[in-house]
Amino acid sequence: MPANLPPQYLEAERRYREAKTTPDKIASLEEMLAIMPKHKGTEKLQADLKKRLSKLRAELQKKKATSRKSGPGHLKREGIGQVVLIGPPNVGKSMLLSRLTKANPLVADYPFTTRTPLPGMIEYENVQIQLVDLPPISREYMESWLPGIIKQADLTLLVIDLSAEDLLEQIETVKEILREARIELEGKGTQGGASYKKTLIVANKADLPGSQENLTVLQELYGERYSIVPVSAEKGINLEELKNQIYNALDIVRVYTRAPGKEANYNEPLAMKKGSNVVDVGQSIHKDFAERLKFARIWGKDKYAGQMVHRDYILQEGDIIEFHI
Ligand SMILES: Nc1nc2c(ncn2[C@@H]2O[C@H](COP(=O)(O)OP(=O)(O)OP(=O)(O)O)[C@@H](O)[C@H]2O)c(=O)[nH]1
Ligand SMILES: [Mg+2]
Q1: In 86, 133, 222, 240, which residue has its Cα 20 to 30 A from 233's Cα atom?
Q2: What CA–CA distance (Å, rounded) separates 224 from 308?
């Protein structure tokens, strides 16, 4: 055992030896790993701790699988869409949440830091988008309730570490594990019992060496099927572009209503699914709108001011609509 371990480490090690339950043992081991100085001299010890950790996590998972599925409870939807951060351990999911929202997750340089879902709100122009940080997905361990949360989301962000050598393997592993849970990271809707989830690949840690070369490979292999957004959560690189891509991927149009002779209220957009028509917008305000609606007028890019439109007119981003009933 190297002699240069700090006292906090020895303290954590003592707690580990005295721990009676598997979660307590895991917590102490994680602490030991986090505290331990990272250099050549401690490599063997680090590897040993990681091995013990994965064994304990496997045990814990087995226990959980036999007990009843217990989840973190219901995650309340807020804003115009629910977006989840998924991916392998330690790639920077939590740091992304902290950079894109006001939420304050734990970020740490060891795997399995996040244990429960944590939502935050992205402020995007005049709307809010819910972003949910989740525990990691790996062969070693995955929370049993995780797939359930992903299935409810409108969009997934598959976060990966662009500087990692096994980057491609990481993507395929996450896809495989989710496939076993009947989730496919492309398309949308459900079919044959499987949920298809629209997915953006967020290539994080683009500030680190080697990431440019990896991005090129990633683009070649996945660029046709996925939008790939290189970012650095830590350095704050390309996060505005990421927000734009998230908004666009949600397939939402913002429309504004106005009363005859009055100004539209730009602070309160109605967020509608792309492809919604006049009746859909009306019904989102009053459910008996369809019967009462006589006609509507539109102010927008593709229409001249105040043009009368039919009930089946498809709304465009930024349209102002005036109902006549
Ligand atoms: N260089 C660099 N490091 C980053 C970046 N984003 C996150 N990190 C670091 O990566 C480590 C892991 O970050 P987290 O946000 O905790 O990662 P996570 O994916 O939430 O990890 P789990 O919760 O364990 O799944 C931390 O040490 C971060 O400081 C980045 O853009 N660049
Ligand atoms: Mg995390």
Answers
A1: 222
A2: 40
| Rounded Cα gap, residues 250 and 239, in angstroms | 17
Please tell me the predicted confidence (pLDDT) of residue 4.
77
Q: Report the separation in Å between the CA atom of 40 and the middle of ligand 2, taken as the mean of its atom positions.
A: 26
Q: Where are the beta strands (DSSP E) in 178-251?
A: 183-184, 189-191, 194-196, 199-204, 227-230
Write down the mean pLDDT value for the chain: 92
Contacting residues for 106 by C-beta, under 8 A, at least 6 apart: 94, 113, 114
Give pLDDT tens digits for 225-284. 999 999 999 999 999 999 999 999 999 999 999 988 888 888 889 999 999 999 999 998
Phi, psi of 35 (to 5 degrees): -75, -35
% the chain with pLDDT above 70: 96
Q: Ligand 1 pocket: which residues have CB below 6 Å?
A: 89-95, 107-109, 111-114, 136, 204-205, 207-208, 232-234
Residue nearest to ligand 1 atom 30, measured at CA: 205
Q: 91, 202, 211: which to mutate for ligand 1, most atoms within 8 A of CB?
A: 91
* Helix/strand number for the chain, H first, E second: 10, 14
Domains in the chain, start-ordered, CATH in brackets? 7-66 (no CATH), 82-249 (3.40.50.300), 252-324 (3.10.20.30)
Residues 283-315 have pLDDT tens digits of 988 878 778 888 899 998 877 788 999 889 999
Top mutation candidate among 94, 95, 232 for ligand 1, by most atoms within 8 Å of CB? 95
